[in-house]
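Deliverable D2.4 — example input (structure tokens):
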């Protein structure tokens, strides 16, 4: 049995402006001790998925339309408030996307970590203090700083405090939502190393949310690529990096510099993610995909297993070619903003935002 299994999860936000289709039927599993990366651009539905795992979505406006989130055999979405309280922090903890706001400004950082330990593990005050000091040492913050308040720390140190707090009760699953985005590049690597080593030491599984494929390559064993509330590709890091199948994932790789490939310019994916209140009927990536055809416009693609658990949600994933962009000839003249200017069977490219060229 997997530690966590998300089945067919669909979440929407019912707002005055309309219905936001944030998560559209995702499936994923995380095994004990495993590091799993969830990658996607802004608005893809990553944070909404993580908040659902802790059953923290505020309803209204959030509505879980369907699905199950099975943790150690129990559906989190059906747990009582008391059981949920036990689960949060003790079994599953989260590093929030903006760590600066998750610390209490009027408590010293020592008090905050101790409170997390006492609350979740029921340890005595003396034991909680020992654990707090142990965690501070692990994240390389001197013990005497435990009497300081959050505003007395730098961004990188605050982030390390948040990590210490999240891991203090030894959870089985850590949800890390963009844990390094707010930090500068030199500190990012240190913080990631710290999370990884603490996670390995305690055999904690991790769902690492990021928009950075490099971070996934460094930290994770498996990963899923999320687009417009769907998982479009999932597999081991090797499958996703060495045998990339989905046009969107290929586009992501083409948008980042590579040390191995000599390129004159990067090839960003043209356009924006579709409006989550008005998603395309067929494939959600259709308006931006250079391989879209009639089938893609009219029918939502099924998830295909390309072998050994490498999953891809694309009508043409198993055809081999043509799923390379740019094309292998590297004919730059045929490209505009990284996409072919003309593409048979794909008249709408370049004519507008939607499949109908509206
Ligand atoms: N409380 C809310 N009310 C209405 N819409 C929401 C709410 N929370 C999120 N959304 C919408 O749901 C979609 C998914 O948002 P989510 O925060 O999960 O994205 P994300 O992948 O975490 O993006 P980012 O990388 O920017 O953090 C977005 O369109 C967002 O605007
Ligand atoms: S289903 Fe069609 S539009 Fe969607 S990613 Fe695959 S080829 Fe592109
Ligand atoms: Mg987010």
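Example output (designed residues):
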């Amino acid at each position: 049995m997997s530690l966590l299994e998300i089945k067919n999860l669909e979440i929407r936000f019912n707002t005055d402006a309309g219905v936001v289709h944030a998560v559209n039927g995702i499936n994923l599993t995380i095994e004990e001790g495993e590091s799993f990366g969830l990658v996607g651009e802004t608005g893809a539905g990553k944070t909404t998925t993580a908040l659902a795992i802790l059953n923290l979505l505020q309803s209204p406006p959030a509505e879980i339309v369907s699905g199950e989130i099975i943790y150690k055999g129990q559906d989190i979405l059906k747990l009582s408030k008391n059981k949920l309280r036990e689960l949060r922090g003790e079994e599953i903890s989260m590093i929030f996307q903006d760590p600066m706001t998750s610390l209490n400004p009027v408590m010293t950082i020592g008090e905050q970590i101790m409170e997390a330990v006492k609350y979740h593990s029921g340890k005595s005050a003396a034991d909680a203090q020992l654990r707090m000091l142990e965690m501070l040492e692990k994240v390389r913050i001197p013990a005497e700083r435990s009497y300081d308040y959050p505003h007395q720390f730098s961004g990188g140190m605050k982030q390390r405090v948040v990590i210490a707090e999240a891991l203090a009760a030894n959870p089985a699953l850590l949800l890390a939502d963009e844990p390094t985005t707010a930090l500068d590049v030199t500190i990012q690597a240190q913080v990631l190393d710290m999370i990884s080593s603490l996670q390995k030491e305690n055999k904690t599984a991790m769902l690492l949310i990021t928009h950075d494929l490099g971070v996934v390559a460094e930290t994770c064993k498996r990963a899923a690529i999320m687009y417009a509330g769907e998982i479009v590709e999932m597999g081991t890091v090797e499958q996703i990096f060495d045998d990339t199948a989905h046009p969107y994932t290929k586009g992501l790789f083409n948008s980042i510099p590579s040390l191995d490939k000599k390129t004159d310019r990067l090839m960003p994916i043209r356009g924006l993610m579709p409006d989550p209140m008005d998603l395309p009927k067929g494939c959600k990536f259709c308006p931006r995909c250079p391989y879209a055809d009639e089938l893609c416009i009219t029918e939502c693609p099924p998830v295909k297993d390309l072998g050994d658990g490498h999953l891809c949600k694309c009508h043409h994933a198993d055809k081999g070619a043509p799923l390379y962009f740019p094309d292998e000839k590297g004919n730059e003249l045929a490209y505009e903003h990284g996409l072919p200017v003309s593409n048979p069977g794909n008249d709408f490219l370049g004519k507008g935002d939607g499949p109908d060229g509206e």
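The longest strand covers residues 18-30.
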